Amino acid sequence: QQQVKQSPQSLIVQKGGISIINCAYENTAFDYFPWYQQFPGKGPALLIAIRPDVSEKKEGRFTISFNKSAKQFSLHIMDSQPGDSATYFCAARIRNQKVTFGIGTKLQVIP
Amino acid sequence: GAVVSQHPSWVICKSGTSVKIECRSLDFQATTMFWYRQFPKQSLMLMATSNEGSKATYEQGVEKDKFLINHASLTLSTLTVTSAHPEDSSFYICSASAQGAGAYNEQFFGPGTRLTVL
After folding, report:
1. Contact A43, B109 (CB under 8 A)
2. What is the pLDDT of residues A72-109, one digit of tens each?
3. Nearest C-alpha of chain A: how many angstroms from B95?
4. 8 Å CB contact of A102 and B43
5. CA angle centred on B77, ends B71 and B83, rounded to 5°
6. Which residues, at least 6 apart from B104, have a Cβ–Cβ distance to it below 8 Å?
7. pLDDT digit string (tens) for A39-81?
8. Closest CA in chain A for residue B58
9. Which residues of A touch B108 (CB under 8 A)?
């Protein structure tokens, strides 16, 4: 059972454009939603995270939008750069319990 | 930020041999460590959760006798793949979290270990 659904699985964006990755969850007990960035051959690194009492969180070019009633959240990468090309995983977690990952989105930013 | 290291970064072994992978938290004490497995172009799959000084909790379908996990100290956990076979070839990633780091104890991931079994 896939508890966190992520789309699209792959995404191509032109340099300077906006990359948008969407996730949906089913378990209303989730109370922490991190996004991870993973480069080939490397472990994932925390990019940005949000709690359900906040509708939006912005850190530099990265923004999470959170819709609690719809049980959906998304990552927006503004002014996308070739260096942003990586695989992005949304995730969800219940306090102090294991992280549930989405399937991942491979982002390619072309010049 | 918190740093987690893994050793080795890659290993090639013959079928039937055992391989040990180390995971260390370098600048914090990790009360809980997690071991993941990742196949190419797939998401991370949690194998087991280990708390310092306790037996690991394995996810459904993960053979505890094949994947031995030891978390003997607050900075070190090891994963031993026993009698490795080609189907065990994968990217193994550990993560660590610290108790008391707020209600949303973040997990910090290691760089991963690429295991190839010939």
Report:
1. yes
2. 999 999 999 999 999 999 999 987 678 899 999 999 99
3. 9
4. yes
5. 100
6. A31, A32, A49, A51, A93, A95
7. 999 999 999 999 989 999 999 999 999 999 999 999 999 999 9
8. A98
9. 46
